[in-house]
Automatic annotation (TrEMBL), chain A:
Keyword presence, Membrane: yes
PROSITE patterns noted in UniProt: ABC_TM1
Name of the protein described by the UniProt record: ABC transporter permease
Subcellular localization: Cell membrane
The species this protein was found in: Paractinoplanes deccanensis
Stretches assigned to the ABC transmembrane type-1 domain: 77-290
SUPFAM superfamilies given in the database record: MetI-like (SSF161098)
Highest taxon in the source lineage: Bacteria
Claim: Transmembrane is one of the keywords in the record: yes
Assigned protein family: Belongs to the binding-protein-dependent transport system permease family.
Annotated membrane topology: Multi-pass membrane protein
Transmembrane segment boundaries: 12-36, 80-104, 116-137, 162-187, 216-237, 269-291
Keywords: Cell membrane, Membrane, Transmembrane, Transmembrane helix, Transport
From TrEMBL, chain B:
Gene3D superfamilies documented for this protein: Periplasmic binding protein-like II (3.40.190.10)
Domain of life, source organism: Bacteria
Name of the protein described by the UniProt record: Sugar ABC transporter substrate-binding protein
Leader peptide range in chain numbering: 1-24
Taxonomic path: Bacteria, Bacillati, Actinomycetota, Actinomycetes, Micromonosporales
Length: 303, 434
């Protein structure tokens, strides 16, 4: 009797164990370690040459103050903010329009178009950035060549006034397909009776889209927006790949690039850990804030 | 489940360690000559495995395996991570000269002064100073050096009836003439992507960005000498006769190949790059000494070049040092380095191994005579323990300056570099003078 009871109480934990162990080893432990590192620093004595001249000591919140007061930190945050203001609305707007068009058509052309629009999502960001990098550099860009032939001088995409758009363009190109598929799938799940009812009431395609479809897929829109916001805060691969091609992308162009530079170029993992913690907290606050802001409205549709 | 192989691995490693320590202890220096050891060697030089094959054939007891690396920066990042982790570092490591202070400061390199013996006379003074950091210790053996030289398109120069510039004033004039004759053509570019290139040009002018006074470091990036160099380039960029786009981009490669860039201030390894990027211009390039600040006292700087070091994690220091010595000073090895790995050996005996010019410069039989001369007039330069910080600051500060095309910004960029480098040293706790 007692053994079966014990087995019954133990069983859930047994099933949970693999997930908990993996979570602990590969998520919780690194986060705790990063938190620990962010409070440490290295102290060098004298010339710092030879063994034993380096010791690790407690640093308190020094890494955090250094990170936050770094003159490059705030500009990189603002830059990512501006980048997000371009990417999120453009990408989701485009994805929504394309999803609605595909849903309205439902033809064989639609199947092809859907795959074609989705395909860039399968291209890794680094490869996409290299591809676009070639298209941006005037001497190797076929786009510039074509524009030149019809008498238009293309602006230098990587000059300081255009570089933000150039990077945003890569993200939009790569991300629209995924968001379009998510929204399209949500649209397909809507029962057709609703459209028929609307049509009988005299609604046109545009009105059906605005008054029936969009409100119903609002939860999906919230989710894609949230994912896009998080991706924006973590923008890294595109500017990192384009950096050596231009003068205009610095090594601290985005906060994550600063983390990379501190950790792997300056060998200062302590400052990098502190900045990572700040970014993680900011991501949490923004995601949570966004959900609070729209959550009640978006999900009330479901009840 | 995962624990069992891990534990077994740890046991094996522990056994290996104890056996290694008992037989190859540094202190008694009586390593068993018949002990078989396997060494790993991180290098990014092409065909290094073929050079090493010659060693392996002659030394059955010391087998070296080459682990090809992507390049100097990623290899150092990996090594520092391995050192911090306490395991995973190779026995032998190719290390660029400017990285050695950083690596020594991270306790990544072993001092092989005892094993190296009397190698000093076999290398130019500058290269030897780079591996000893001016101390009694020896942190590696110089492998290759990169004395800077000036490459130019002789066909373009002939057409415009200009000679290879002997001074920087003549270089500026040539740049103006070329850009005036064809507004699309440039004699060169100021690259914000290549701090090593700018450091070499400053070295030529007589700068030395770091210095050691007793037990404190000094930083002299923003000194009068480097300001002269930065001001010169800022002036040319502002005037618009020199391009402001970085090197090593698809754009720059295409420009070399289609004759838009008709000159390149580079180093002895330049032919390999030109061959890869501008194959269609073969036979049109020539090489000369760098233009001079003072024609009466010719000088040059270094761009690139590396040493071979034994890491502090190696359990077979003596054997590793023996290999490193052979690789960089044995005449047969030097011949292989020059001929197979395509590097310019640092050894003073390298002239014997370099009689034929590189294939891309078959039109210039005296290529290596020019290189040997450049190697002789290379000025000394001291690297500090935070070259990485100074160099990444160069990327950002000079990127901004080059984009603005204003000479004043170039001087400001130097001040930014100086500040970032000093702040970092002080922050880490190095003693800093001044």
């Amino acid at each position: 009797m007692s053994t079966t009871v014990r087995r019954r109480t133990g069983a859930p934990y047994l099933f949970l164990a693999p997930a908990l162990v993996l979570f602990g080893l590969f998520l919780a432990a690194p986060i705790v370690y990063a938190g620990y590192l962010s409070l440490r620093r290295v102290r060098v004595s004298g010339l710092g040459l030879g063994s034993g001249s380096r010791t690790e000591i407690w640093a308190g919140l020094e890494n955090y103050t250094r990170s936050l007061t770094d003159p490059e930190f705030l500009p990189s945050v603002l830059r990512v903010g501006a980048y997000g203001l371009i990417v999120v609305p453009c990408m989701l707007g485009l994805a929504l329009i394309l999803a609605l068009l595909l849903d309205a058509g439902r033809t064989r052309v639609g199947t092809f178009a859907r795959t074609a629009i989705f395909l860039p999502y399968a291209v890794p960001a680094v490869i996409a950035s290299l591809l676009w990098g070639f298209l941006y550099l005037p001497r190797v860009s076929p786009i510039v060549d074509v524009l030149d032939r019809v008498g238009i001088t293309a602006p230098d995409a990587l000059s300081s006034s255009w570089v933000l758009y150039a990077v945003a363009n890569i993200a939009i190109w790569g991300g629209t397909g995924f968001n379009m598929i998510v929204l399209y799938t949500a649209l397909r799940a809507i029962p057709t009776e609703l459209f028929e009812a609307a049509r009988i009431d005299g609604a046109g395609d545009i009105q059906i889209a605005l008054r029936v479809k969009i409100p119903i897929i609002a939860p999906s829109l919230v989710m894609t927006t949230l994912f896009s916001l998080i991706a924006t805060l973590q923008v890294f691969a595109e500017p990192m790949t384009l950096r050596p091609l231009s003068n205009t992308i610095s090594t601290t162009w985005t906060p994550l690039m600063k983390v990379y530079r501190d950790a792997f170029v300056r060998n200062d993992i302590y400052a990098a850990a502190a900045t990572s913690v700040i970014i993680a907290l900011a991501t949490f606050v923004i995601s949570y804030g966004f959900l609070k802001l729209v959550g009640s409205r978006a999900f009330s549709q479901e009840n | 489940m995962k624990k069992i192989p891990l534990l077994a691995g740890a046991l094996v490693a522990a056994l290996l360690m104890t056996s290694a320590c008992s037989s190859g202890d540094d202190s008694d220096s009586t390593a068993d000559p018949n002990e078989k050891v396997a060494l790993t060697y991180w290098s990014w030089a092409p065909n290094m495995d073929k050079v090493v094959a010659a060693w392996n054939a002659a030394h059955p007891n010391i087998q070296v395996t080459v682990n090809k690396q992507d390049g100097g920066d990623p290899a150092v990042a990996k090594l520092l991570t391995a050192i911090k982790a306490g395991s995973g570092a190779p026995d032998i490591m190719q290390a660029e000269y400017q990285k050695i202070p950083t690596l020594v400061s991270a306790d990544a390199l072993a001092d092989i002064a005892k094993e190296a013996g009397d190698l000093k006379a076999k290398f130019p003074e500058g290269a030897w100073a780079a591996v000893t950091l001016g101390s009694e210790a020896v942190y590696g053996v110089p492998q290759d050096s990169g004395p800077m030289m000036f490459y130019y398109r002789s066909d373009v120069f002939d057409k415009l009836k200009i000679k290879a510039p002997a001074t920087w004033d003549e270089y500026a004039d040539a740049a103006r003439t070329i850009h005036k004759a064809d507004a699309k053509q440039y004699l060169g570019t100021f690259s914000s992507n290549d701090p090593g290139w700018f450091a070499g040009l400053s070295q030529q002018a007589g700068a030395s960005w770091w210095g050691v006074n007793g037990d404190s470091w000094s930083v002299a990036i923003d000194d009068a000498t480097t300001q002269k160099v930065a001001g010169y380039w800022g002036g040319l960029v502002q005037e618009g006769v020199i391009d402001n786009k970085p090197m090593y981009t698809p754009e720059w490669n295409a420009a070399l190949n289609d004759g838009t860039q008709v000159g390149w201030l580079s180093a002895v390894w330049g032919p390999g790059v030109l061959e890869g990027n501008a194959a269609s211009t073969k036979g049109k390039w020539k090489v000369a000494q760098l233009p001079q600040w003072d024609a009466a006292a010719p000088a040059t700087g270094n761009w690139g070049g590396s040493a071979t070091s034994v890491t502090s994690q190696s359990k077979h220091k003596a054997q590793a040092a023996e290999f490193v010595k052979w690789l960089n000073s044995d005449p047969a090895a030097i011949k292989l380095l020059a001929g197979t790995a395509n590097v310019y050996p640092a050894s003073v005996d390298s002239a014997a191994a370099l009689t034929e010019p590189p294939a891309f410069f078959s039109n210039q039989p005296d290529f290596y005579a020019v290189a040997a001369e450049a190697s002789k007039i290379t000025k000394p330069f001291t690297y500090g323990p935070n070259v990485n910080v100074a160099y990444s600051s160069y990327n950002d500060a000079f990127g901004k300056a080059a984009e603005s095309k204003k000479a004043a910004e170039f001087a400001g960029a130097l001040a930014t570099m100086q500040q970032a480098t000093l702040d970092d040293l002080k922050n880490t706790g190095f003693k800093v003078a001044g």
